[in-house]
Amino acid sequence: MSDQTQVIQDLDLASANCVTLAGAQTIEQDQRLLTIFETAKILVTERELEAMLQKLLSCLIETLEAADAGSLWLYDPSDGRLVAKGAQGYDLAALKHLRLAPGEAMSGRVFQTEHPQLYSTPEATAAAMANITPANGESFKAATTGLSQPLSAVCVPLITGQTKVGVLTLLNLRQPASFTHEDMAFLQRVADLITISIENARLREELEAAQTLSEANRLKAELISTLAHEMRTPLTSIKGYSTALLMEESAFSSETQQEFLQIIDEECDVLQDLIRDLLESSIIDAGLLKLEPQPVRLPRVAQSVTNDMARHTQKHRFLLDFPEDLPILDADPDRIAQVLRNLLDNAIKYSPQEGLVVVRGEVRENEVVVSVADQGVGIAPEHLNRLFEKFFRVKTGLGRHVVGSGLGLPIARTIVESHGGRIWAESHSGQGSTFYFTLPLTGLSQKREVSQNE
Ligand code: ADP
Predict the structure, then answer these.
(1) pTM of whole model > 0.70?
(2) Are 351 and 377 in contact, with CB atoms under 8 Å apart?
(3) How far, in Å, is the centroid of ligand 1 from the Cα of 443?
(4) What's the confidence (pLDDT) of residue 26?
(5) Distance (Å, rounded) from C-alpha 294 to C-alpha 166?
(6) CA distances in angstroms from 370 to 281, 301, 324, listed in the order given
(7) What would the pLDDT profile of 150-175 be if each residue is shown by its tens digit?
(8) Full 3-state SS string of 271-295
(9) Whether the CB of 281 sits within 6 Å of ligand 1
(10) Which of 348, 347, 339 has the alpha carbon at shortest distance from 411?
(11) Which of 305, 348, 339 has its CA nearest to residue 417?
């Protein structure tokens, strides 16, 4: 072979090697572009932080040839430790029980030093992972049960400016030295992208929380102003009549005095009802509603509540309609009376033109349906669904103010639902309203026994 031929052959070999190398580089570049593209897609589309982190980790492991498993950790400033927010190859539920201190295990160490790290041998990888405190030992064992021994790893910190956010760790389970320095540099760039998104997501969450808070504050302010107004009306009346009665120079007849005292008495009842509703509502909000079930004869409860209500109104007439053989219910009689009282009170308040109020009970399938029907102002269809929301009140257009807290129906709903029943209303504006509630025939005690045996 001439020298010239040898040179040509060498050149061919060199260019073939070049093509192979260039080919490998192109594949690697394509892979990285794909990773960036997929990462960006997840960052843009996924709004929920934890779902986003889990997807990002899966995407990295899928698109990066060297990565077989991994975990993503975020720093929790409230306890100064790292918490797993995403994992592949590990048991994520078990991994979430770990709280890694800065310096602990591979992720904790990189978080502490803030420097990305390559682990090229199985020994170095195992040594870095083994540095686990006894408190985390059991959870770590459980989390790594299905994971074979990692042979190499790469770990990069998630940092923006001064803020350390967390750590991303990828493992290779097939061969040592599988991650290169280029891989690490590339991963750090992806990690920076992820970090910015985490910061954005956190800011978004904080903003949403602030908005919710300001909505809650707005509702609270509205409530206070409504209550102040509702209380001022009866108080003004009480003050006016009592001042009049106390004036020395006035000489009211005993009938007028009696009338004034009657008004004062009624307005005190209004105030008492408002305060009772408020207290009840806060008890319910605190989850302190307690039911004391016992055998209940519903017609008797309804009769007693109706008699009581009838004493407060001479204008309305009441009709009770219950079948003789209505089964005895297993319920809290005081609470059921409270529901009926709220419904009857409304039937009276919102029937200014007087009229008949019918309280009816009947058995339908495996429940008792109770209804309270009036001939009052009725409720427009668009308001029917909102009646049971706290503080919701319809402007009645009655031409006068009707005192109320907007809490009677929400309280009734909680009581009925705690008994396993439902409550709803049917009405047409101007044509009266009917409120219904159901109570299951399998009462509270039975249900309690069933759930205890479950
Ligand atoms: P309150 O009566 O103290 O305002 P409720 O929660 O008992 O509070 O009722 C909420 C609203 O539902 C009332 O403000 C009223 O607009 C409407 N409502 C309730 N019952 C009736 C009824 N029988 N007829 C007409 N409207 C009613």
Answers:
(1) no
(2) yes
(3) 28
(4) 67
(5) 56
(6) 23, 12, 14
(7) 999 999 999 988 789 999 999 999 99
(8) HHHHHHHHHHHHHHHCCCCCCCCEE
(9) no
(10) 339
(11) 339
Give CA–CA dist 213/193, Å, rounded: 30
What's the gap in Å between 214 CA and the centre of ligand 1?
27
- Report H helices in 290-440: 298-310, 333-349, 381-384, 408-418
Q: Stretch 362-386: mean pLDDT, rounded?
A: 93
Lowest mean pLDDT among 66-80, 148-162, 288-302, 431-445: 431-445
Shortest CA distance to 112 belongs to which of 171, 157, 160? Answer: 157
Measuring from atom 21 of ligand 1, which residue has the nearest CA?
346
Tell me what percent of the chain is helix, strand and coil, each rounded to the nearest 5. Answer: 55, 20, 30
- 337 burial type by CB count under 10 A (0-12 exposed, 13-18 middle, 19+ buried): middle
Residue ranges of alpha helices (H) inside 247-373 are 254-285, 298-310, 333-349
Distance in Å, CA 371 to ligand 1 centroid: 15
Look at strands 316-321 and 294-296 and give their pairing: unpaired
Q: What is the pLDDT of residue 394?
A: 85
Q: How many CB atoms lie within 10 A of CB 312?
A: 12
Let me know: does 328 contact 296? Beta carbons within 8 Å.
Answer: yes
State if residue 71 touches ligand 1 by the CB under 6 angstroms criterion. no
DSSP 8-state code for residue 100: B
Q: How many residues does the chain have?
A: 454
Q: How far apart are the first and last CA of the chain?
A: 91
Angle at 342 between CA 337 and CA 346, to 5 degrees: 145
Buried b (16+ CB within 10 A) or exposed e, 68-77: bbbbbbbbee
